[in-house]
Amino acid sequence: MDLNEEYTQVDVFVSNKEISFNPAILIPVYNHEKAVVTTLESVLAHSLPILLVDDGSDRVCQQVLEELRDSHSEHVSLLRLDNNGGKGAAVKQGLIELHAKGYSHAIQIDADGQHDTDDLPTFLATGQRYPSTLISGCPDYDESVPKLRYYSRYLTSVWVWINTLSFEINDSMCGFRVYPLAEIVTLLEQEKCGDRMDFDIEIMVRWLWRGGKVKGIGTRVNYPVDGVSHFNAVHDNVLISWMHTRLFFGMLLRLPTLLRRKLNG
Predict the structure, then answer these.
(1) pTM, to two decimals
(2) Which CATH number fits the domain that encloses residue 248?
(3) Which of 19-23, 123-127, 128-132, 227-231 comes out lowest in average pLDDT?
């Protein structure tokens, strides 16, 4: 069966509201000119619309992305940002672009090949079944994961549990997700989220604060096929630490609401 036929334009009902499930793939790219070729090839096998967001890449990567768009124009479009704003900035622009084009959901996948695209049908089926829920990957790592990154994720999870007064978010850093676009774009219009590696975490916390639902899916993760990582151990950890601090005080302001929601189940 053509997955594009299976997963697009399917009408589902949530709280008596009809929602059309019309998804597209979102891939933020920054100087992953080698890995993105392999990633795109594996995603194309699922016959879904794909938006590549070029986050101000160097000319070599620009040319590769233009060639990929031109050679797969039936499925692939390209949004180029003039300056490198960070992964979060690229994802936000991609979400806004896909929403403006009429898609209902965006499936975010990293360009560097760390996500297992064989799990795409599971993410799509879950997004179709729970169209108002943010679906997020829960990584099953192989031996390629850097130990510092692995343990840092656990520390971030502890802060997320504190800042949400909930264990609902199993992993807040995995970039393999299904976003309900209408609700997420409204959130982005009303609240400021980080532009770099802090984005993936912050958007989930703020989503939960607003009463949004989160569902985790186990997925295999490896690091990355071309050895290029844009995670800056100093700069990004400082950003994430500052984000946790801001979110903590935001949690305190929302404490009565969060506690009431928790008590009411």
Answers:
(1) 0.84
(2) 3.90.550.10
(3) 227-231
Q: Which domain holds residue 143?
A: 9-263
For residue 82, how many other CB atoms are within 10 A of its CB? 7
Q: Per the structure block, which two tokens stand in for 241?
A: 């630490």
The total of structural domains in the chain comes to: 1
